[in-house]
Amino acid sequence: MTAIARKQVQETHLHVRGELMTPLPEGALWWGSERTLVVSDLHLEKGSSYAAAGQMLPPYDTSATLAVVEALVRDYAPERVISLGDSFHDGDAEWRLVEQDTARIKALTNATDWVWVEGNHDPDPPQALGGRAAKVLRIKDIVFRHEPTGESGEIAGHLHPCAKVLSRVRTLRRSCFVTDGERLIMPALGAFTGGLNVLDEAYAPCFPDGGMMVFAMTRGAVIPVSNKRLIPDRGRPGMERWRLNTSSNSKG
């Protein structure tokens, strides 16, 4: 589906410090005035990392995640792509890539001004995949970093936000964008990434002004969700929890 075709279906817009942004149902963010596509928490080669530790996940997460990014780049033709940290699941992931996926990443970084923002899983930029690295990236009044701090104008990732929503007949759990109009937290785009409920206490310092708004991803659209319909993940066994400013082996 091209960007023009997308406009014929339901499209949601939001503002971050006065800048118009479009959250996309794939989990990316489009900043049209800057021709910039933002993706977060790709966690490439998470499957091979788990396999090395004895947990045999299907080794297709990198290919599936890259397919989503490639489609977005094809549809929107961005001049700049910002990968907002944890692009790789660990420091050795770049070297576990199969040759075909290495070529696909190089094609993406050659086609755009590609920026690898430093994450807690991948503090070092890739050495042989193209693009440029940044600990923090500032464009106009917007600041891009991996771990949210609550700074005004901030777009961050790390927490993998998810919303659990109570409907008339059942509960639904969806990845989501979280914003208060001054700052925004991106969902994780990686195929094997989990999520942290937006009602978790970890979000409180990220939105010091209050007024958190949730935009949930569906198959073909991003839709606003009333805070009154949000419910916590009580009693979910083995639920992972993300925290800010933790050690290098923190989850997220």
Write a concise synopsis of the structure shown.
By secondary structure, this protein is of the alpha/beta class. It has helices at 3-6, 46-52, 61-76, 93-96, 99-111; strands at residues 14-16, 19-23, 29-31, 36-39, 80-83, 113-117, 132-134, 137-139, 142-144, 154-156, 161-166, 171-179, 184-185, 196-197, 213-217, 222-225. Strands 8, 9, 10, 11, 12, 13, 14, 15 and 16 form a nine-stranded mixed β-sheet that branches. A seven-stranded mixed β-sheet has the order 1-2-3-4-5-6-7.
Describe the overall structure:
With 252 residues, this protein is of the alpha/beta class. It has a single domain (9-229), classed as Purple Acid Phosphatase, chain A, domain 2. It has 5 helices and 16 strands. The strands form 2 sheets. Strands 8, 9, 10, 11, 12, 13, 14, 15 and 16 form a 9-stranded mixed beta sheet that branches. It has a 7-stranded mixed beta sheet with strand order 1-2-3-4-5-6-7. A hairpin with a 4-residue loop joins strand 15 and strand 16. Helix 3 packs parallel to helix 5. Mean pLDDT is 86; it is low at 236-251.
